[in-house]
Design brief:
Layout: E1 7-11, H1 15-21, H2 26-46, E2 52-56, H3 67-83, H4 85-91, E3 93-98, H5 106-118, E4 125-130, H6 135-148, H7 155-160, E5 171-174, E6 193-196, H8 206-217
Parallel strand pairs: 1-2, 1-5, 2-4, 3-4, 5-6
Helix pairs in contact: 1-2, 2-3, 3-5
The structure holds farnesyl diphosphate.
Farnesyl diphosphate binds at residues 12-17, 30, 33-34, 37, 57, 62, 76-77, 80, 129, 176, 201.
């Protein structure tokens, strides 16, 4: 029996190096990265088994980048989410954002909220963008909500107070050769299978994704058992 793949998460890494190797500005790498987001999301929407795709788009640490790059990423994000609405509707994709959205401009927050509202009945796939996201930050905010609700601490209660209804991730992929979690989905990754590829995110294809999924399906998942 092969492993079901319901929740796939990706750390999209290597945009900067992809651009540098081509003698381009880093921003060109992010632009090319957007095409990969589209390609991989639409592929996942067509796969009847995959329910959720969570993408690490901006971490709580990414503010340390030069202001020009941060501004560009914000601009790209706002443009992407706005332009993507037709595709979300066409492919039955529900859009969600996780992370602490409070530092974003009202305009970006409105765009995210309007897109979430517009797509909320779509059922082929939920695409979750992690924005100003940190796994530790999410857990701290969830603990605060749990305490505010006067609930006894438990895994179940804390899971309910995370940014999205808690679903374990089945498979995490990180592109570009780095092999670390970088504060992504720390709670949800407890029993996740990990896959690392040398490929830079802008070069990541659906064929490579398929190969990684096929390998994942044959793995022996034990969840602490034997
Ligand atoms: C990592 O590459 C990528 C990011 C920090 C941001 C991810 C953003 C995108 C894929 C494009 C925008 C996405 C959306 C949804 C609009 P890096 O810059 O860390 O690359 P490097 O490690 O080679 O420098």
């Amino acid at each position: 029996m092969s492993n079901p793949l319901r929740h796939l998460a990706i750390i999209m890494d290597g945009n900067g190096r992809w651009a540098k190797e081509r003698g381009l500005r880093r921003t060109k790498g992010h632009e090319a990265g957007v095409e990969s987001v589209r390609r991989i999301t639409e592929y996942c929407a067509e796969d009847p088994e995959i329910e959720t795709l969570t993408l690490y788009a901006f971490s709580t640490e990414n503010w340390k980048r030069p202001k020009m790059e941060v501004d560009y990423l914000m601009h790209l994000l706002e443009k992407f989410v706005r332009l993507e609405r037709d595709r979300y509707m066409e492919h039955g994709i529900r859009f969600e954002a996780i992370g602490d959205l409070s530092p974003f401009t009202p305009r970006l927050r409105d765009t995210l909220e309007e897109t979430r509202e517009l797509t909320k009945e779509n059922r082929n796939l939920t695409q979750i963008l992690a924005l100003n996201y940190g796994g530790r930050d999410e857990i701290v905010r969830a603990v605060q909500r749990m305490l505010d609700a006067g609930e006894e601490p438990s895994e179940e209660a804390l899971g309910r107070h995370l940014d999205t209804p808690y679903t374990d991730v089945d498979l995490l992929i990180r592109t570009s050769g780095e092999q670390r979690l970088s504060n992504f989905l720390l709670w949800q990754l407890s029993y996740t299978e990990l896959a690392f590829t040398q490929t830079y995110w802008p070069d990541f294809t659906v064929e490579e994704l398929r190969t990684i999924i096929d390998d994942f399906k044959e793995r022996h998942r034990k969840f602490g058992g034997i």
